[in-house]
Amino acid sequence: MPPPNTDSITATIIPSLPYITTQSGIHDAGTTYKVWYKYTPTVETILLGVYFRGDGVIYKPDTRIHINDGLNFIGYINANLISQVPLLVGKTYYFEIIPNSGNPNPATLNINLLAAPQHVSVPGGSIFIRGASITSSWIPLGYKGLGAGYINPNTGVIFNFEPMFVVGESGDFLPSGTILFADDINVLSAVNDKWILYNPDLSIKAQFTWDWAQQTGHPVSRASREYGRFYLGSKGYSGNTTYASWTSVDENGILAPTVVLPGMYGMDALANSADDQFVYIAGTGGGGAPRTIIRRWNKALGAFGPDLVPANSVANSYVADMLVMPNGHVVVIWQEFTLRTCFVRIYDANGAILRNFTPIPNNTTGVPARLGYADDLTSFWLFIHVYNNAGQTSNSYFFNLLESDVSILKTINSPDGYWVEFDHGPNPQYRFVTSDSCPFILILPGGTLIVNKVLNGGSPAQVFHFTTTGGLVPSTFNLASGGSRTFSGVTPGVYGIIETPVLGYHTNYSVSDGSPNTAITVSANEVVTVTVTNNGSNPLSGIYKVVPNSFKSNDTVYTDLQANEKEDRAIPRPTWKTGLIGG
408: helix, coil or strand? Predict the structure, then answer.
């Protein structure tokens, strides 16, 4: 008997996401049938991970994606591969599953549809890693890996993992916390480069496309840390000529005019100078030198100035990544073509070599090494992927290097390799595995919250207890006079600092950004200081009596009428007051 869903009219309805199931009985009496599924979103979805697969040996179906009754074809996914589709409310998406060749039997279809996260909580300062294992296919390319993970920069532990995320190898963040990700290829953006701007909680801020020529290969990006802009670079073609180009975009997705670079035929990395006067371009150019030159584009003149690194000056190596530190020094990873070893070289703004660093181990798998800004901006992160055990397995390493002397501040080593791929086994799941693809990392920015204790009067030995809200760790702490507590890498958000009242002490809060102490807003890379002042009394020893305040002098009596009051009660110009009559 044929399956019940062999056309768009009988398509199986996908009720909600995620949708994970199987369908058997697709082959009958010598025929393996096409089957159809459909989904109508009720909310706009950033991306839908689409994966209809067979056993990967006999049955390896292709997937066609349509909008509205199969009449509007929008994309094609080859043989057992995975891709992504942005979903719009008011449209119905149809998935046509086609046997790749002949009539394979058995034919059991495994279905996995996962929506990208709309909002996540990402601890500030965490390492974000993302990318894809790319498998050859025609438009759009098929991707196996669609995940993203967040790694604790102190321990290397993967503390959060998103099984569906935009696929791409480029991105960065601004000091405000706005994050830019390249959505390199999905079924609706196989030609144009699409980009997504996120807020620090990974909710979408804006989306845009850069339509210069037709992009080839993967775009690259770098953030301008001084002027609040992202710089984008890519290569494209016009007719039979290939060009490199760059543009910039603000935090709202508004693009500047595209600059086409004469004499540049490829681009591997770009970064703006610290003073924003130049854009450094690494790639193919200068007489066709293959991927061995770093040129300097003068924005004011609209022309190239002296090269930062002349063509072929670093033998048999290409630029894998590049960034510019706030002091103007340019950090470059050079990766060797054949042996695949790599090293970091730091240049001043005139191209003079300042420092070199060679990571150990250094037998890389060919996965491009990557750089990422650290939260403090005086150091940076280096990511490499290396072979071990005679090339049978591989490790991922993160090195946190101080820029001033390339000393190692921290090393993270993963014996299994950090990477994201889809498990094609009988029980598919997303996981971190070894991969020979192109990574993309950045250090997600966090803020800093400092609590200072000031005591005026009272006992210097008095200890005050604090509780916090909003997820700070630790959630409670104690401070005495002159004490301080610093929370680093704070996820951008709203927090509270509350002191437990102590009898005989008046409490005052002062927050540096003007927030109330119960709703302190901390932004990415922001330092917020909370000063908690207690005014206590130091009574003189002796004999006291209560006397009439006959002249209603401008005295004030402070009383603690109830133990649960947060502040002492002030009574100005009281009728009665105390007076010391003997010591």
Answer: strand
Nearest to 74 by CA among 59, 91, 61, 51: 91
pTM for this one?
A: 0.69
H or E segment to which residue 452 belongs? strand 447-456
Would you state the structure tokens that stand for residue 118, as one six-digit string?
A: 């709309």
37 near 14, Cβ under 8 Å?
yes
Burial of residue 353 (CB within 10 Å: 0-12, 13-18, 19+) is exposed
Query: Do 248 and 229 touch, CB atoms closer than 8 A?
Result: yes
Return the amino acid letter for 373: Y
Domains annotated for the chain, with CATH where assigned, are 12-114 (2.60.120.380), 116-445 (2.120.10.30), 448-536 (2.60.40.1140), 543-582 (no CATH)
Question: Hey, CA dihedral for 483, 152, 515, 466, is it positive or negative?
Answer: negative
* Two tokens, residue 471: 């997820």
What is d(CA 516, CA 566) in angstroms, rounded to the nearest whole number?
A: 15
Rg of the chain in Å (alpha carbons): 31
Nearest to 372 by CA among 396, 398, 407: 398
Looking only at the bridges linking them, the beta strands covering 12-13 and 35-39 are parallel
Q: Fill in the amino acid letter for 485.
A: R
What is the C-alpha end-to-end distance of the chain, expressed in Å?
A: 107
Contact of 256 with 245, CB cutoff 8 Å: no
Query: Which residues have CB under 8 Å from 582's CB, separation 6+?
Result: 542, 543
Comparing C-alpha atoms, which of 144, 177, 142, 182 is closest to residue 166? 182
Q: How far is CA 412 from the centre of its chain?
A: 18
Q: 30: exposed, middle or buried (C-beta count within 10 Å: 0-12, 13-18, 19+)?
A: exposed
**Cα 38 to Cα 5, 89, 556, distances in angstroms:** 10, 14, 75
Q: Measure CA 268 to chain center.
A: 21
Q: 3-state SS of the chain: helix, strand, coil percent to 5?
A: 0, 55, 45
* pLDDT string in tens for the chain (583-residue length): 899 999 999 999 999 988 889 999 999 989 999 999 999 988 777 667 777 888 777 888 888 888 876 567 776 676 666 666 777 788 899 999 999 888 988 889 988 887 776 666 666 667 777 654 433 222 233 334 456 667 777 666 666 666 566 666 677 777 677 888 776 655 444 434 567 787 766 677 887 877 654 455 556 777 776 677 888 887 766 555 667 888 888 988 899 998 888 878 778 788 888 888 999 988 876 555 567 889 999 999 999 999 999 888 888 888 888 989 989 999 999 988 877 788 999 999 999 999 999 998 776 666 778 888 876 778 888 888 776 544 445 677 888 899 999 999 988 876 544 444 333 333 333 334 334 345 556 666 678 899 999 999 888 889 999 999 988 888 999 999 999 999 877 877 789 999 999 988 999 999 999 999 999 988 777 889 999 999 886 554 445 555 555 555 555 454 544 444 444 444 555 544 554 444 4
